[in-house]
Design a protein that fits this description.
Elements: E1 4-7, H1 10-22, H2 29-48, E2 64-69, E3 74-79, H3 86-94, H4 101-109, E4 133-141, E5 150-155, E6 160-166, E7 172-179, H5 189-199, E8 207-215, E9 220-229, H6 246-257, E10 265-271, E11 277-283, E12 299-304, E13 307-310, E14 325-330, H7 339-344, H8 346-367, H9 372-389, H10 391-395, H11 400-406, E15 410-411, H12 420-426, E16 434-438, H13 442-446, H14 452-456, E17 462-464, H15 469-473, E18 478-479, E19 482-486, H16 500-512, H17 514-523, E20 530-533, E21 542-545, H18 553-561, E22 572-575, H19 580-587, H20 592-609, H21 617-630
Parallel strand pairs: 2-8, 12-14, 16-17, 16-19, 20-22
Antiparallel strand pairs: 1-6, 2-3, 3-7, 4-5, 4-7, 5-6, 8-9, 10-11, 11-14, 12-13, 15-17, 18-19, 21-22
Helix pairs in contact: 1-4, 2-5, 8-9, 20-21
């Protein structure tokens, strides 16, 4: 192929502009990204060679080499991995297929525009070379291709790149950086070694650099023809825990996840028995942008006997733990394992169950710790991932009890951090149920009329405001033998907490109010399933409830908002016969028109108070205005 000049994809042009003009907070990460890419290329060769061992050609030992040329002002990163064909070079280096590209650019253009660490997070790490280089040259040949099928790709990081065919004897790839003025600090063996040691120590392949010697004439160290390994060349998870520092665990996490923050917690274990595997799992400090995409691939990399297999093995971790990052290295799985086999394998099921329990154990150790620092970490975790963890209550029946103990809520006693165990400890003598209410917001839950009798009697009510709560509660019915009871469902029966005098008074009120109730039922027959008096209300005139077992009004609203059909049931209107507005309604008994108008206002206000929406707001406004004018 003769030399061709091609244009970058539009998104690449934008990224290159941002890379060259905005990313300068941590320039050295270019070497991390390029060494990581080189390691990935070797992993890909090792994987393809499982079926085609001839791809190793005459060089079965995989490695990465890094060197510099002070006179030419270049740095070269070489790998003897899979390499690229001409079409792959154009495709991989000239276009971006990843969906995260736009989010990457939005991030760079926002508050974090100077943060070079973002670049690897979105799969555009190759372009980080332009942070320090004004020209990049890539020379490559795909494993299994002939020497004459080598490719040279080059670009100055502007709008175009050139591609041509070359003769290249070795498979693999050389990435050559032509450093721009002012970046000479990287033309140093000490500098390059320190960066590799900092970011690439965990890579299981050897990263080689030329040994150096002192040159009296130049008064400096110069490279020799001998090569030495400058990283540990042993995967971190294969090393003994006693040999790994906390800082090394954290550095590995940052390299693995492209996260700048240290993880909240991690666990490193070797499991032996029916299945043998090593796990190194991390709980991040911050939720990723795509946390609510349940179809996203998992964050766990799968290795088999230290051979990299796939970097998004979702079968190894349940969906509700999709935030977990880490590595699992199995001694039992076949090297040619596929995603389909992962779904069916008994060994994978054992790994999944073991890893799930290990992660839950990590969270329990934070939540139940005597240390205020650990409990604060758990509070931070809950703020980021609590709503996702709740999915597990319905999805993972085997661990439902453990998950229930990890749940945290707001309540009428505290705005955050209330566990079921905390609630049970504070239950009043004679209280037999755990009371809760669901609402769209914490404010709506706190101010709901349904809470009035509970507040008057000092009974704690859990305030549930996550969208997932209604679904979770359809799978969780009790905790520690105490049933969960919605304060917005069914009639109020406080059992032993309500004395006989109160019960008699409620019955007498209902009997005296019966004629008015009958008229209310008639006036609201198209809107309310029933109208009844209640002891639930203290300060409000009315509230909306549903029958026990029916879908809550809150869930019906959520379904409607998501475009799904909700059952067309009618709610129940409960009225406070002692309230002044209801007494006025009772006094209007002879005036049919005014009675009906006020009955509808009462219903609409009760609907609004519990977060509902009026079907005809204009009619409500007209009724209120009419009432105000008459007053």
């Amino acid at each position: 192929m003769d030399k061709q000049t091609l244009s970058f994809q539009a998104e690449v042009k934008q990224i290159l502009h941002l890379v060259t003009h905005s990313l300068y907070s941590n320039k050295e990460i270019f070497l991390r990204e390029l060494v990581s890419n080189a390691s990935d290329a070797c992993d890909k060769l090792r994987f393809e060679a499982l079926d085609k061992p001839q791809l190793f050609e005459d060089a079965p030992n995989l490695e990465v080499r890094v060197w510099y040329d002070a006179e030419k002002k270049t740095i070269t990163i070489r790998d003897n991995g899979i390499g690229m064909s001409a079409d792959e070079a154009v495709s991989h280096l000239g276009t971006i297929a990843k969906s995260g590209t736009r989010e990457f650019m939005n991030k760079l253009e926002g508050d974090q525009k100077k943060d070079a660490n973002l670049i690897g997070q979105f799969g555009v790490g190759f372009y980080s070379g332009f942070i320090v280089a004004d020209r990049m040259t890539v020379e490559t040949r795909r494993a299994g291709a002939t020497a004459e099928e080598g490719v040279r790709w080059s670009s100055e990081g502007t709008g175009d790149f050139e591609v041509e065919t070359i003769t290249r004897a070795e498979r693999g790839t050389d990435v050559i950086l032509h450093l721009r003025e002012g970046e000479e600090e990287f033309l140093s063996a000490w500098k390059l070694k320190s960066v590799i040691s900092k970011y690439s120590d965990h890579i299981s392949l050897p990263v080689l650099m030329p040994k150096t010697k002192w040159d009296d004439e130049k008064k400096d160290t110069v490279p020799t023809d001998e090569w030495e390994t400058v990283n540990k060349a042993a995967a971190l998870w294969t090393r003994s825990k006693s040999d790994i520092t906390d800082a090394q665990y954290q550095d590995f996490y940052k390299q693995l996840s492209y996260d700048q923050e240290a993880p909240l917690a991690y666990t490193h274990n070797r499991v032996e028995g029916r299945s043998e595997y090593t796990q190194l799992l991390y709980v991040p400090a911050k939720a990723p942008m795509d946390m609510w995409n349940r179809d996203k691939r998992g964050g766990v990399k799968l290795y088999v006997k230290r051979v990299f297999i796939m970097d998004d093995a979702e079968a190894l971790m349940p969906v509700y733990l999709r935030f977990v990052k880490g590595v699992i290295d199995s001694a039992d799985l076949p090297l040619n394992v596929s995603r389909e086999l992962l779904q069916e394998s008994r060994d994978v099921k054992a790994i999944r169950e073991g890893s799930t329990k290990r992660v839950l154990g990590m969270l329990e150790s934070l939540a139940d710790s005597e240390s205020a620092e650990d409990r604060e970490k758990y509070a931070k975790f809950w703020g980021e991932f609590g709503a996702v963890l709740k999915e597990g209550v319905g999805e993972d029946h085997a661990n439902q009890e453990r998950l229930a103990k990890l749940l945290r809520f707001a309540s009428t006693h505290a705005d955050t951090g209330v566990s079921f165990a905390d609630y049970v400890k504070r239950m009043k003598e004679g209280q037999e149920e755990i009371y809760y209410i669901t609402a769209d917001t914490l404010s709506a839950a706190k101010n709901s009329p349904q809470l009035e009798i509970f507040r008057k009697k000092g009974l704690e009510v859990l305030l549930l405001t996550d969208r997932v709560d209604e679904w979770m509660l359809s799978h969780l019915y009790e905790f520690d033998g105490k049933p969960l009871q919605s304060v917005a469902k069914g009639g109020v029966d406080l059992g032993k907490l309500q004395d006989e005098e109160e019960k008699k008074q409620a019955e007498a009120t209902a009997e005296a109010f019966k004629p008015t109730l009958d008229k209310l039922k008639e006036a609201l027959k198209d809107r309310a399933k029933d109208v009844r008096t209640t002891t639930r209300l203290v300060d409000s005139p009315a509230c909306i409830v549903v029958e026990e077992g029916d879908m809550s009004s809150h869930l019906a609203r959520l379904l409607k908002q998501s475009g799904q059909a909700a059952p067309a049931g009618k709610p129940i209107l409960e009225v406070n016969a002692e309230h002044a507005l209801v007494k006025r309604l009772e006094a209007m008994n002879q005036d049919e028109g005014s009675f009906d108008e006020l009955a509808h206002i009462l219903f609409d206000q009760a609907l609004l108070a519990e977060g509902g929406q009026l079907e005809d707001p204009a009619a409500y406004v007209a009724r209120v205005n009419k009432l105000l004018v008459a007053a």
